[in-house]
Amino acid sequence: MFFLVALAGLTCLPATAQSPTEEDALARSILEKSDAIRFPREGFQVDINITSTSPDDEADRRKYRILSKGTENTVVMILEPASERGQIMLMKGRDLWVFMPNVSQPIRLGLAQRLTGQVANGDLARANFSGDYTPRLLRTENVGDEEHHVLELTAIDRGVTYRRVLLWVNKRNHRPHKAEFYSVSNRLMKTCVYDNYKSMLGQQRPTRLVMEDALKQGNRSVLEYQEMKLRDLPDQVFSKDYLKKLQ
Which domain holds residue 40? Predict the structure, then answer.
């Protein structure tokens, strides 16, 4: 009798209790492999030059240094312009603060807030698609001579940088090719192309990202990654007290 009751209970389990489908697992695997190509999981440092242009203004050039470990800890330091040197952003999980040289207390920031040009804070501080989004495989699509997976990424909560992302991933080598970023109202905000792949830390990685505003034609930001290297980064590096030593 106990066996029959238990069996009846199992048949009443909600659909959410079922194991992920093979398609869900495939989409997750594709996304994780694409993330691993963009950045290593080990502690690393990389410098990023960002040039933002628009039809009505002169080019704005900035340089940042990123210290990152895993997917939850990142420090973003402004190197240029000199007038802003000493400003540091710290990300712990999805919590983001900026430390200013002349301000005693850190200021809380949102990941979706604009950092410079078409670049949001989260684009530098938390480029972790597999940790922030639920992927779904929409289709395959040819780009040039290469077949690509097209993934739809849905934010797992409101705290992430974008509500929805479409990501094109090369089917043969899992390299990210292009992303489209959408607002809460499902309006296309901007696009990003990943290119200029070069060997960095034993992996072919995109060293140039081109972000273009989908609402204002001609507004774009070009991110160029250079001098990536592994670093031993103790957990204390990603603390408010330690950042005071870096300013």
Answer: 21-246
- Burial label for 12, CB within 10 Å (0-12, 13-18, 19+), is exposed
d(CA 64, CA 75): 10
Instruction: Give the list of residues 6+ apart from residue 26 with CB closer than 8 angstroms, or none.
Output: 137
Residue 70 confidence (pLDDT): 86
Q: How many CA atoms lie within 13 A of 4 on its CB side?
A: 1
How far apart CA 74 and CA 237 sit, in angstroms, is 9
Domain count of the fold of the chain? 1
Tokens of 42: 């080990």
Look up the CATH number of the domain holding residue 44: 2.50.20.10
- Provide the pLDDT confidence category of residue 13 given band limits of 50, 70 and 90: very low
Start-end of H helices in the chain: 2-11, 22-38, 121-125, 129-132, 240-246
| Structural domain contains residue 16 | no
For residue 81, say if its preceding peptide bond is cis, omega within 30 degrees of 0: yes
> Residue 56: pLDDT above 60?
yes
- Distance between CA atoms of 131 and 91, rounded to whole angstroms? 14
Is 154 inside any structural domain?
Answer: yes
Q: How far is CA 98 from CA 82, 106, 111, in A?
A: 17, 6, 11
